[in-house]
Amino acid sequence: MALEDISQYLRLDKFPHIWCPGCGNGIIMQSVLRGLDKLGLDQNKIAVISGIGCSSRAAGYLDFNTLHTTHGRALTFATGIKMAKPELTVIVLTGDGDCSAIGGNHLIHAARRNIDLNVVVFNNSIYGMTGGQFSPTTPLNDIAATAPFGNLDPPFDLCELTKAAGATYIARSTTYHATQISNFVIKAIQNKGFSFLDIITQCPVYYGRMNKIKDAVDMLKEQRDNARNIKQWSILSDEEKQGKFVIGELHNQPRPEYTESYQSLIERHIEKRQPSPKSEERETKSREE
Ligand SMILES: Cc1ncc(C[n+]2csc(CCOP(=O)(O)OP(=O)(O)O)c2C)c(N)n1
């Protein structure tokens, strides 16, 4: 099947991109665009916000309203934009470090508010841009530039974290399952509330090399072999779950969205302050006197 041409969403003058050979970031970026293309949204009504990191460079390559902000602060800028212009579809492209280390606080509070943002985490389990330091999603005992003898910090499950914090749509996929990513992007945007997509991706140059995985293809094969759909996952014992992870739509439970609640608060307040006919009469009288 021929794929749709999605070049109208790219700033082709910004290419070549900075990503290393074998990096999964381009697969995620393309899958996001394919989801957006299927939705047929007005390109000028989409805002893409990112922080700092290899993954966050994606915003610069996309021809929407874009902001490439500061490390860990993508969600704060995105929140401001959504509050000021709730009619926009706001997408946050971020890394595991950007959104769950320095930006972890903003992540849980944006989820708690259920503000209508669509977060796509390029989860490569490492700080790619700065040379392979461990991140909050680096698996236990894996090697990183800052953990040469193995990582001692137990990793976050970002889907469990955002579920506990209050996100209303949560899904996980991998760069091996690219078409699934596009479908989740569509569902995320259709959810009126905080949507969170945890996309497992490969960093062959830092993570792969330090952990003795031969190349990007082997990393993709690991994703294929270790991913379990929800049904398969549900029958595994804790022991069988070791080294594996669940992919699929993990949570979909709508509740009131923040910008809508904010708008109705304003309207309720204005209504309360409407002058009653009697007080208007009194005012006219006092003006006439
Ligand atoms: C305030 C601040 N602290 C630290 C940095 C350095 N820095 C830039 S990107 C980055 C980590 C990026 O990791 P991640 O968000 O996982 O993205 P990746 O590069 O792996 O895609 C760090 C620590 C910075 N730019 N600003």
UniProtKB/TrEMBL annotation:
Cross-referenced CDD domains: TPP_OGFOR (cd03375)
Keyword line: Oxidoreductase
Annotated InterPro entries: 2-oxoacid:Fd_oxidoreductase, THDP-binding, TPP_enzyme_TPP-bd
Region feature Disordered, mapped onto this chain: 268-289
Entry-linked PANTHER family: 2-OXOGLUTARATE OXIDOREDUCTASE SUBUNIT KORB-RELATED, 2-OXOGLUTARATE SYNTHASE SUBUNIT KORB
Protein name: 2-oxoacid:ferredoxin oxidoreductase subunit beta
Residue span, Thiamine pyrophosphate enzyme TPP-binding domain: 52-199
Pfam families on file: TPP_enzyme_C
One of the GO BP terms on file: cellular respiration
UniProt-recorded Gene Ontology molecular function terms: oxidoreductase activity, acting on the aldehyde or oxo group of donors, iron-sulfur protein as acceptor; thiamine pyrophosphate binding
